[in-house]
Amino acid sequence: MRIIIDAFGGDNAPLAVLQGSRRAKDELGVDIVLSGDETRIREAAQQAGIQISDMEILHAPEVFDIHAQPTTILKEGKNTSMAVGLQALRDGKGDAIVCAGSTGGLVAGATFINKRIKGIKRPALAPILPTKKGPLMLMDAGANIDCRADMIVQFAIMGSVYMEKVKGIKNPRVGLLNVGAEETKGRELELQAYELLQKAPINFCGNIEAREMPEGNFDVVVSDGFSGNIALKLYEGMGAFMRDNIGDMFSGAGKISALLIYPRIKALRKRMDYKEHGGAVLMGISAPVIKAHGSSDGKAFFNAIRQARDCVEGGIISTISAHLETMKGV
Amino acid sequence: MRIIIDAFGGDNAPLAVLQGSRRAKDELGVDIVLSGDETRIREAAQQAGIQISDMEILHAPEVFDIHAQPTTILKEGKNTSMAVGLQALRDGKGDAIVCAGSTGGLVAGATFINKRIKGIKRPALAPILPTKKGPLMLMDAGANIDCRADMIVQFAIMGSVYMEKVKGIKNPRVGLLNVGAEETKGRELELQAYELLQKAPINFCGNIEAREMPEGNFDVVVSDGFSGNIALKLYEGMGAFMRDNIGDMFSGAGKISALLIYPRIKALRKRMDYKEHGGAVLMGISAPVIKAHGSSDGKAFFNAIRQARDCVEGGIISTISAHLETMKGV
After folding, report:
1. What is the pLDDT of residue B49?
2. Which of residues 153-192 of B touch A (CB under 8 A)?
3. What is the 3-state secondary structure (H, E, C) of chain B?
4. Nearest 5 degrees, angle CA B192-CA B196-CA B200?
5. I need a labelling partner for B32 at 20 to 30 A (CA). Which of A85, A183, A321, B75 fits?
């Protein structure tokens, strides 16, 4: 299996990318294809003492600017490491791609260069969030700020396939993000989506209020991309707030206290750390596309590559296609 | 000053209401008017040994059901403790009201029984959230699931008045909840609201991503009621998640560790506890209406009554009216 990685995406590129790639090659046995400026990649690897002779490099002289208009990836940005990586994926030079660069650029690039799965109306950004009990897939977390109800149903199908095939959760519980539990709650969008979700070939468990997300009683939460983005970012923000507060509590004179329960603090940090979960999947594209967090370090890239491998091994693209075929008859 | 309190709103009514009222009468010197079944109120007070002979009771034989259709408060529910309280407020028998009952019922009742401030298009639910630095007012947190841009501008004005008059914050910083910081971000609603907010007589500081809310760099965050509700509930849910995690960390063998930093744990709990901040204000109604949390205990009711007093003392209704007058010329 070959995983393509944008070597110049994210705040810590290319060093963190190289660290994660090295570990992935060694521990997961996947082949690594790095896209980016070859000279700069080789220099960075040499400086850090990272062996990359067993990795392929696809030369791409430019880097896609994080502030650039997303659709410029198609023309002005076609020689960037992100675009070259996506083109290579399209041309069969890899089975999946990992990128920590501009989310907008990646969504636009993947949609137009790699195309959507046949029948999928819109791709959705699907991060994995920690909860009290297990991982939760939220989608759409921001690829489409305006959504129709039929798109939300497709998100639910794609999310269910992912949680089953990649996370091994049988019959994943799907919830619709809403302002109340009753089926009469919400805007016209939620009312329509509720009705369609009930008929879809998924385990739809009704509306979920944002308050319940951390409880872990749902495996997939679907919403329009605006609401989902608010939820994702508050999840991240409150997680950081929590880590800071715990840090403050144990600073200075609290250090002795921290030593006593160090394993627990460590376990909690690990549970709340997005780096453990890889990245967000851009679901609905014809090949697995993993959007790693912009601040990813070597460990986060390693986990994102593992996630890409799991998507390929789980055959999520073909399973999604098969589900869509089934739905045609409904 | 006379504060009306729905004696039968919330999970812990009437006991918690009576506890909070007693403390408010003693410590704040406000007059208390309890609305609800007189016999049940007197029985509950006697059983708990709470002196209420210096409080007025407005007899209301029924209780508004939390699952009832909000607008039924106007006809079928007109003899409930909530409706009788709102009617008394309208008739000048009190200066403000505190209620922990159905949010929908309270919004509908206050809108039609007490009316909006002249010129205000929609009332908004405005809870106070804890942040790293100070209190943050979020509005609308769910009174209107669909909003227009001009409503959001009015929310911003009302929130600014509250934070200045009640919390003493000069020139409150207002942010528009959005999916990115740039002014080109968001749906049509946010694009329009951004433009109008720039021209409004407030200290508009641009878009705020949900991630930044806990940072405390904004005093007022405005949004439509659907997005605001998602943000509010996730804020609450993550706060509870955090309290549970901290609890787990210090359970069993962690107890010794907890003892060492007990004052810090206590301070953090206090900071994160919504009970400290009173309730959500239903802004835009012609008199202060405080929606206390459904699970309010005596302390939460006390704080909500204090908040009602602060709204009356701060003259927020007349200040909002004056601001709206100024805007007419713009």
Report:
1. 97
2. 177, 179, 186-187
3. CEEEEECCCCCCCCHHHHHHHHHHHHHHCCEEEEEECHHHHHHHHHHHCCCCCCCEEEECCECCCCCCCHHHHCCCCCCEHHHHHHHHHHCCCCCEEEECCCHHHHHHHHHHHHCECCCCCCCEEECEECCCCCCEEEECCCCCCCCCHHHHHHHHHHHHHHHHHCCCCCCCEEEEEECCCCCCCCCHHHHHHHHHHHHCCCEEEEEEEHHHHHHCCCCEEECCHHHHHHHHHHHHHHHHHHHHHHHHHCCHHHHHHHHHCHHHHHHHHHHHCHHHHCCEEEECECCCEEECCCCCCHHHHHHHHHHHHHHHHCCHHHHHHHHHHHHHCC
4. 165
5. B75
Residues from chain B that touch A212, judged by Cβ atoms under 8 A, are 237
Interface contacts (A, B; CB < 8 Å): 141
A247 in contact with chain B, both atoms CB, cutoff 8 A: no
Average pLDDT, chain B: 93
- Residue A177's closest chain B neighbor by CA? B230
Pick from B215, B239, B257: which is nearest to A260 by CB?
B257
Which residue among B211, B225, B236 places its CB closest to the CB of A237? B211
End-to-end alpha carbon distance in chain B: 36
Exposed/middle/buried for residue B246 (C-beta within 10 Å: 0-12, 13-18, 19+): buried
- Chain A residues whose CB is inside 8 A of the B260 CB are 254, 256-257, 260
| pLDDT tens-place string over residues B45-81 | 999 999 999 999 999 999 999 999 999 999 999 999 9
ipTM: 0.90
Nearest to A21 by CA among A6, A39, A10: A6
Alpha-carbon dihedral sign for residues B92, B98, B99, B103: positive
The answer for residues whose C-beta is within 8 angstroms of residue B255's C-beta and 6 or more apart is none
Neighbours of A196 (CB within 10 A): 17
- H helices of A9-144, where? 15-28, 38-48, 81-90, 103-109
State both tokens at A82: 């992100």
Residue A253 pLDDT exceeds 80: no
Distance from CA of B209 to the nearest CA of A (A): 7
Predicted TM-score (pTM) of the model is 0.92
Q: Determine, for residues B249 and A256 on separate chains, whether the beta-carbon distance falls below 8 Å.
A: no
